[in-house]
Design goal:
mainly alpha
C-alpha cells in the first residue's frame, strides 16, 4: 500500500505543479494581450474588457491558492508518509473527478487507495 501512496503523492505533486505553471503562463499571456485589446476597443467596451481581465486574473489566483497549492501539499505529505495527507488527498481527489479525463483517473485512483488503506488499517 505504501507504493500506491507514493505513486499518488507523485501524481498529485506533478499534476498540480503543471497546473500552476499553465495558469501562470495563461495569466501572463492575458495580462499582456488584454491591454492591447483594450486600447483598440471603443469606450463602451473598455470597461467590460477591464472587468473581464481582472476577473480572469482573480479566477486564476483562486484556482492556484485553493486547489493547486493544497494538492501539492497533499502530494508532498503522501511522499513523506504523513497520516493527514491521505485525507487531504481524498478531498482533492474527489474534486479532481470533474476534471476529465486525467483528473477523473487520478480521482478514482485516490478513492481506491483511500479505501484500501482504510481496509488495511481495520485488519491491523
Amino acid at each position: 500500500m505504501d507504493t500506491h501512496k507514493r505513486v499518488l503523492g507523485i501524481l498529485f505533486t506533478v499534476t498540480e505543479i503543471l497546473q500552476i505553471m499553465v495558469l501562470t503562463i495563461l495569466s501572463l499571456i492575458f495580462s499582456t494581450l488584454f491591454p492591447l485589446i483594450i486600447e483598440q476597443a471603443d469606450q463602451d467596451a473598455t470597461w467590460i474588457l477591464e472587468w473581464v481581465s481582472r476577473f480572469g486574473q482573480l479566477l486564476g489566483l483562486i484556482l492556484i491558492f485553493f486547489f493547486a497549492i493544497p494538492s501539492v501539499i497533499a502530494g508532498i505529505g503522501l511522499l513523506n508518509k504523513q497520516r493527514w495527507a491521505m485525507t487531504l488527498a481524498l478531498i482533492f481527489g474527489c474534486l479532481k473527478l470533474f476534471s476529465f479525463p486525467i483528473g477523473t483517473v487520478i480521482g478514482i485512483y485516490t478513492i481506491w487507495v483511500f479505501a484500501e488503506d482504510q481496509k488495511q488499517a481495520k485488519t491491523d
